[in-house]
Design brief:
Aspartate Aminotransferase, domain 2, single chain, about 375 residues
Length: about 375
C-alpha cells in the first residue's frame, strides 16, 4: 500500500472531525436564508451571530468587528482597497515578501495611481528593518497604511505585531496585518494590540475552505466592498455561507482551547525535523530564521537542500511519487522559471541554485513521518 504523508499544512489543513460534524448538522437542519424573517431564516441568522461572538472572544474584540468573507485573499483586498478608497490613505507601506494577495493588490493601487507604495527593507531572515519602517512613516505627511503579515507563509518569520502597531500609532498610520498563518496557532489580543485591520482564513486552522474573516475596528469608516444587500454590517453583501461560518467558529474554538498542548507538540515535531535534517544533510540551509523556534512559526521549515542543479527539478516529482506532499519555493533556476519571490529575497547567492522546499506541519503529523521523509530525501540525493 502506497504511503501518504501530508507536509503542506501552510497551504491548507485537513478539517477536524468535530468541524465536519458541526457543518453537517447545519447543512441538514439550518438551510434557511439568514436574511429571511421567518423562523428558518432566524435560525440561520442565530447560528451566524453565535459564531461571530465565539470568534470575537478569542481575540478580545467586539463581535461587530468581525466581518465574514470568503477567505484571506478577499479580506486582504477588501481592507487595502477600501482603506485607500474610503479613508483617504495615500501611501501604503508593505514588504516585498508578503503574500501575493497583498502584493498584487498594492500593484493595482500603484498602477492606477490610487496610492503610492513603499517597501520596507527586510533582512536575510525575513525580519523587517524597524528603523526603515519608522523612516518611511515619517518620509512625508500623507495618510498611511502599513500592511505586514503576522507570519510569513513561506519561511515562517514572526512579525512583532506590538512593535509595529505602536510605531503606526505614534505616527498616525493605520495598521493591517495578514494573519492567515497565525490565527488559530498563536494568541492575538486585539484589545491590547493597536491593529486596525486583520485578515484570516479558516482552512489554515483545520476549518473549511472558502470562508474567512476580516477584523475591522469600530468606527473605521469603511464603505461596502461588495455591493448588494446589507449583510455583514453592510460591508460585504451576499448571502452568508452558514455551514462554513459555523465550521470556522468550531475550528477556532478547538484550536484555542488546545493551543498550549498543540504548540508544544508542533515545536517538538519541528525540533525533531531540524535535528534530522541537520544530521542527514550537514550542508543544508534553513531559509529565513525558520530554524529558530522563538522567531519563526512552529508550523513549518523551509530548507535549501544540497542537491545538484541537474537533479533539483526532479525533487518535487520524486517526493510526490513517494506520497509526500510539500511545497516548492525556489529562486529562479537556470533562468527558465520564475521562482518564489520570498526565497529570491532571503536566500544567499551561494544557495540560490539549490531547491528550496517548504515542509509544513500539523498536529496530525508524526515523527515517524519525518523519518520517512528524511529516508526518502537521502535515497534521492544518493541516486
Amino acid at each position: 500500500m502506497e504511503r501518504k504523508v501530508y507536509f503542506d499544512n501552510a497551504a491548507t489543513t485537513p478539517m477536524r472531525k468535530e468541524v465536519i460534524d458541526s457543518m453537517h448538522k447545519v447543512l441538514l437542519e439550518t438551510f434557511g436564508n439568514p436574511s429571511s424573517t421567518h423562523s428558518f431564516g432566524r435560525s440561520a441568522k442565530t447560528q451566524i451571530e453565535t459564531a461571530r461572538k465565539s470568534i470575537s472572544k478569542h481575540f478580545n474584540s467586539d463581535p461587530q468587528e468581525i466581518i465574514f468573507t470568503s477567505g484571506g485573499t478577499e479580506s486582504d483586498n477588501m481592507l487595502l482597497r477600501c482603506a485607500v478608497q474610503d479613508l483617504g490613505v495615500q501611501t501604503v507601506i508593505t514588504s516585498k515578501i508578503e503574500h501575493h494577495a497583498i502584493l498584487h493588490a498594492v500593484d493595482f493601487l500603484a498602477e492606477n495611481k490610487l496610492a503610492n507604495v513603499l517597501y520596507v527593507k527586510t533582512d536575510s531572515e525575513g525580519l523587517i528593518d524597524f528603523g526603515d519602517l519608522e523612516h518611511l512613516l515619517k518620509v512625508d505627511r500623507t495618510k498611511k497604511l502599513v500592511s505586514l503579515m503576522h507570519i510569513n507563509n513561506e519561511i515562517g518569520t514572526i512579525l512583532d505585531l506590538d512593535r509595529v502597531s505602536k510605531l503606526c500609532q505614534d505616527n498616525d498610520a493605520l495598521f493591517h496585518t495578514d494573519a492567515v498563518q497565525g490565527v488559530g496557532h498563536y494568541a492575538i489580543d486585539l484589545n491590547q494590540l493597536k491593529i486596525d485591520f486583520l485578515s484570516a482564513a479558516a482552512h489554515k486552522f483545520h476549518g473549511p475552505k472558502g470562508v474567512g474573516f476580516s477584523f475591522v475596528r469600530k468606527n473605521s469608516g469603511l464603505n461596502p466592498f461588495i455591493l448588494g444587500g446589507s449583510q455583514e454590517r453592510g460591508l460585504r453583501a451576499g448571502t452568508e455561507s452558514v455551514h462554513n461560518i459555523v465550521g470556522m467558529a468550531k475550528a477556532l474554538e478547538i484550536a484555542y482551547s488546545r493551543i498550549d498542548e498543540e504548540q508544544k507538540y508542533l515545536k517538538d515535531l519541528k525540533t525533531y525535523a531540524i535535528e534530522q535534517f541537520t544530521k542527514s544533510f550537514p550542508e543544508i540551509h534553513f531559509n529565513g530564521c525558520c530554524s529558530d523556534l522563538d522567531r519563526s512559526s512552529c508550523t513549518l521549515v523551509n530548507v535549501s537542500l544540497p542537491v545538484p542543479e541537474d537533479k533539483a527539478n526532479l525533487l518535487n516529482f520524486h517526493l510526490d511519487l513517494k506520497g509526500i506532499a510539500c511545497s516548492k519555493g525556489s529562486a529562479c533556476q537556470s533562468g527558465s522559471t520564475k521562482g518564489s519571490h520570498v526565497i529570491e529575497e532571503v536566500v544567499p547567492l551561494s544557495h540560490k541554485n539549490n531547491p528550496a522546499i517548504r515542509f509544513s506541519f500539523s498536529i496530525f503529523n508524526t515523527k515517524m513521518e519525518i523519518d520517512y521523509l528524511i529516508q526518502t530525501l537521502e535515497s534521492f540525493v544518493k541516486e
